[in-house]
Amino acid sequence: MASQKMLKFVSVPREMPDKRPPDLRNRDFDEIYAEFADDQAGDQAGRCSQCGVPYCQTHCPLHNNIPDWLKLTAEGRLQEAYEVSQQTNTFPEICGRICPQDRLCEGNCVIEQSGHGTVTIGQVEKYITDTAWDEGWVKPIRPSFERSESVGIIGAGPGGLAAADMLRREGVQVTVYDRYDRAGGLMTYGIPGFKLEKDVVMKRIDQLEDGGVTFRLNCDVGVDISFEELRGAHDAVLIATGVYKTRDLQAPGVGAAGIVRAIDYLTASNRKGFGDDVPEYESGELNAEGKNVVVIGGGDTAMDCVRTAVRQGAKSVKCLYRRDRHNMPGSQREVANAEDEGVEFVWLSAPKGFTGDTVAGVMVQKMRLGQPDATGRQVPELIDGSDYTEDADLVIKALGFEPEDLPKLWGVDGLEVTRWGTVKADFRTHETSLPGVYACGDIQRGASLVVWAIRDGREAAEAIMAQIGEPAQVAAE
Fold first, then answer.
1. Which of 69, 100, 135 is the last residue of a domain?
2. Which ranges carry the FAD/NAD(P)-binding domain (predicted)?
């Protein structure tokens, strides 16, 4: 009987939850997708072919047991489905919302390759965990016993929080240090609410705090506490700061007023959503209302910026990217959502300079794709005589992020970094050149996805537990 719940891909078409119309969702920062109805979630999960080699699981950084929890969902065994998903993923409700499934699990679904349309894995994952919260299946963190060892985690983003969760469940004393006034890192201040509503993040942070994790917010390591003090206070330290230094442009006029960093723009918008007093927003400096907005970049951060500008009431929103749609790094789903909402993409275009002391325009040079480079990507080449100017009252630079110089910033001797500036650490144990100091997430691997940070944080926690060793009372038995 149970087997009849599966293999529906030949009779049931792929469906996403209802998506709010653009003219309605453009007015607020609420998530754009509704929840699956119970029957719809079961039917969509039942489209899974239960293939012998699950490429969806293989291509998930966390190697989530996707076929197992799809089958349990199709059979109506939702609590078991949640428990299976929670075994490998600390924050499944967050990954279900913001992972680029079209590049990871869903993009490698076997039935997608056969032309039947992928299983809607991300939306089912979101449905399972949201149901778990509603039904009280998400249990508080209550270690079976308390240990004396402590770990200090620098950075309250996804990597640091994933490690904090795992360590606290083992009874380790955990303190998370973060320079911002709220935990969550880019999940809180970098990702807009229409992709990840903030109460979803805050629930997990509340769970960690209720479970005994101590948060020291507004605490800037190197200023409010030295790195050596922090090392002296803990048995191990995990560096999970992420990367916040914005890659910059070198072009005439780049210093003009009205040219801003994506992280500043998104943070101001998210703070406004929390109800904070944001002078830079109120003054118009970081507010797109009534303006011609140009966003430079083609990644997910650029998509967040253009879609935020639409919601702030921009007069026009354009995105300049030097390659074409096929070669852009951002999620194709996000591009489609942005186009639905009125964003214009100007492909094969790059900024040459900016006009005005307060920016009035972007000088654009058109490109074409030439021969592939060493990575296999075609290299953009300038087209002579094709320059023109785009009107712009606000220009947002979304060119990616680089690591800060932590050894210099923190005054640390012996902390080795790579030639890219990331902290040098073993990719299995995550241990750095300093004994008892670990690193995870973007500060180790470079700017990447939330799901990779979660994986790194979980791995680092396992390595720290191995270093700490068995608790005294167990060893004595």
1. 135
2. 151-457
- Cβ atoms of residues 363 and 134 within 8 Å: no
Q: In sequence order, what E strands does 115-218 have? A: 150-154, 173-177, 214-216
Instruction: Check whether residue 420 and residue 387 sit in a common domain.
Output: no
Q: In this structure, are strands 361-372 and 349-355 parallel, antiparallel, or unpaired?
A: antiparallel
Number of Cβ atoms within 10 Å of the Cβ of 235: 17
Q: Which residue has the higher pLDDT, 163 or 17?
A: 163
Domain annotation covers residue 261: no
Do residues 381 and 454 share a domain?
A: no
Q: What is the mean pLDDT of residues 444-458?
A: 97
pLDDT score for 470: 74
> For residue 74, which of 43, 102, 98, 116 has the smallest C-alpha distance?
43
Domain match, 109 and 25 both: yes
Domain closes at, from 397, 412, 444: 397
Evaluate whether residue 144 is within a structural domain: no
Answer whether residue 473 shows pLDDT above 60.
no
Question: Within 10 A of 148 (CB to CB), how many other CB atoms are there?
Answer: 11
Amino acid identity for residue 383 in this structure: I
Most confident of 63-77, 374-388, 463-477: 63-77
> What is the mean predicted confidence (pLDDT) over 289-295?
98
Condensed to tens digits (0 to 9), the pLDDT of residues 128-141 reads 999 999 999 999 99
The CATH code of the domain that includes 306 is 3.50.50.60
Eight-class DSSP state of 9: G
Same domain, 385 and 447: no
Contact 402, 421 (CB under 8 A): yes
Say if strands 173-177 and 394-397 run parallel, antiparallel, or are unpaired: unpaired
Please tell me the predicted confidence (pLDDT) of residue 477. Answer: 38
pLDDT at residue 472, rounded to an integer: 58
Residue at 457 is within a domain: yes
Report whether 380 contacts 370 (CB < 8 A): yes
> Is the same domain home to 186 and 84?
no
pTM: 0.94
What whole-number percentage of the chain has pLDDT above 70?
98
Domain hosting residue 353, numbered range: 271-397
CA distance 127 to 132: 9
Concatenating the DSSP letter of every residue in 55-84 gives HHHHTSTT---HHHHHHHHHTT-HHHHHHH
**What's the pLDDT score for residue 4?**
64
Compute the half-sphere exposure of residue 282: CA atoms within 13 Å on the CB side of its CA: 6
Residue 249 lies in a domain: no
